[in-house]
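Board notes (copied after class):
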Amino acid sequence: MKIYSWNVNGIRAVIRKGEFGPFVEAHQPDILCLQETKAKEGQAKPDLPDYLEYWYSADKAGYSGTAIFTRTEPAQVIRGLPDDIAEQFGLADDGYGDANREGRVLAMEYDAFWLVTVYTPNSKGDLSRLGLRYNHWDPAFLAYVKELEAGKHGSGTPKPVIFCGDLNVAHQEIDLARPKENRRTHGFTDEERERFQDFLDHGFVDTFRHLHPDVTGVYTWWNQMSKARDRNVGWRIDYFLMSQALQPNLAEAAIHMDVMGSDHCPVSITLDGV
């Protein structure tokens, strides 16, 4: 099974550029998770007749949003974080608005696992949303995926979780081209990196680093303003993480730096025996 994730930075734009259809045709994902769709269902025409489409859009038009295109119908679909988790972790308290109404989390239950795609809030250049990330969003999302793992949603059966998407953090110095210059830049603050480490400490595996622990110069996002992609001055901020129970099924984890159309490139995993 091949599962892909891509922050498309506007699905209508990537379709208009002629990049989306050829990418799907070439890679043939069984499941494709998208972030930053910037569209509501029906506003984009991806032309994927072999896939079922599930969308979760932000209340604000043209902003954020996630979607999953899948060849296999899921047993359950959950849009957003549960209300009790959102309330417990104070997600409506952010000065920018309610982070749980920005189309950021879309979960699907399959026979062998839960799959969650997430578009984590950016901490902003002035770090004005760092408090949301550190104190509210990241702890809330961790609590949610652990609840899914424990069988507290959907069918009620405990099962492993895969979550993927734009987590808006480079975990280690190896995950960005210029770590020293970005020590207090959003996406590489100690606080954001600590919260990413929390996922690993609670039993989730960074699939790419698990299989490729020492690979350098492999990134998923480049600043468009400075033509950073031409020089490969990038950041690895898009991930697949999974429950340890699925590690034996992990055949490959890849980053597709050759795929254009967005300021991010797709990432993928291949699973055997699920």
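Comment from the instructor: DSSP finds seven helices and 14 strands in the chain. The first strand starts at residue 2 and ends at 7.
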